[in-house]
Amino acid sequence: MAAGHSPLAQFEIKRWVPIKIGELDISFTNSSTFMVLTVVVVSAFLILGMRRNAMIPGRWQSMVELLYIFIANLLRDTVGKEGRPYFPFIFTVFMFILVGNLFGMIPYSFTFTSHIVVTFAMALVVFLGVTIIAIAKHRLYFFTFFMPPGVPLLMAPLLVPIEIISYLSRPISLSVRLFANMLAGHTLLKVFAGFVVSLGMFGVFPLAFIVALTGLEIVIALLQAFVFTILTCLYLNDALHLH
């Protein structure tokens, strides 16, 4: 199969504006372009949606307010009132992933959330952020997180390493979940798209499957943004309240 027709060709990073500083390659790529475009679209959607701030909101303002209320309620239910100062970050994470995922559903676009380096970077920021918050608030008491209350002291040599490994694996599980779902779904769409042309008149069957799969992919795009966000909220809750 030619490289351009490979199901994985859609994930190839392409340099659009080559930039090199010595041996450091900081080229502007298709991935960075769609990340910037996502920020622009989210900003425009929120700013223009709330520009009138009407007492009786229109459709656009209603969508913005519904998203705002949805994340605010999610943060309140998982973290409580102490999570309110972190709402801007949580809302930003949700909107960035949501719009980035949906951009990937547009033909000839690029799905930057299908790259593990992108999702791991976001997960690492979340992991380091909540860890710093936990240490800043609880100081040395933070390390009791790895020894749940009520557990016999004799279990400590076994339980503590397990808890530490589980804690350190958070950015890996958080990033892989988003990356794997985006990668697998788009690859499957590309595979079945190849059957539509090669099967001729019988291509109507894989075409029907593609339509159904596209709908499913949109749902997954929404769901993965929600899952990443709610896990971030749960990690923040652990940081603020420990056990």
Question: Could you characterize the architecture of this molecule?
Answer:
By secondary structure, the chain is mostly helical. The chain is built from 7 helices and 4 strands. It has helices at residues 30-49, 59-78, 87-103, 116-138, 156-168, 170-198, 204-241, and strands spanning 15-17, 20-21, 24-25, 28-29. A two-stranded antiparallel sheet has the order 1-4. A two-stranded antiparallel sheet has the order 2-3. Strand 2 (20-21) and strand 3 (24-25) form a beta hairpin. The protein is globular. It starts with 14 loop residues before the first strand and ends with a helix. The mean pLDDT is 87.
Point out poorly predicted stretches.
Answer: none
Secondary-structure-derived class: mainly alpha
> H/E series, N to C?
EEEEHHHHHHH
Calculate the mean pLDDT score and round it.
Answer: 87
End-to-end C-alpha gap: 53 Å
Q: Report the helical percentage.
A: 55-70%
Q: Sum up the overall morphology in one term.
A: globular
Number of helices: 7
Summarize the structure in short:
The protein is mainly alpha-helical.
Summary tags:
4% strand; 243 residues; two-stranded antiparallel sheet; 7 helices; mainly alpha
Please outline the helices and strands:
Elements: E1 15-17, E2 20-21, E3 24-25, E4 28-29, H1 30-49, H2 59-78, H3 87-103, H4 116-138, H5 156-168, H6 170-198, H7 204-241
Antiparallel strand pairs: 1-4, 2-3
Helix pairs in contact: 1-2, 1-3, 2-3, 3-7, 4-6, 4-7, 6-7
